[in-house]
TrEMBL record:
Gene Ontology MF annotations: cytochrome-c oxidase activity
Provenance organism: Penicillium cosmopolitanum
Residue spans crossing the bilayer: 6-26
GO biological process: mitochondrial electron transport, cytochrome c to oxygen
GO annotation, cellular component aspect: mitochondrial inner membrane
Protein name as it appears in the record: Cytochrome c oxidase polypeptide VIIA
Statement: the UniProt record of this protein carries the keyword Isomerase: no
Amino acid sequence: MLRRNLVLDLSTAFGFGTTFGYLWWYGFHLPRVRERDTYYARLEQERAEARE
C-alpha cells in the first residue's frame, strides 16, 4: 500500500511539474524573451539610423 501511494505521488508530482514547466516556458518565458529581443533590435536599429 505504501509503495503504491509513493509511486502515485511521485508520478503525479513529476507529471504536474513537467506540465506546468512547459506552460511557464512556452506560455510566459519565450514570449517575454521574444518581446525583449524585438525591443533591443529595434532600439539598435534606431541608434544605427541616428548615427548615419
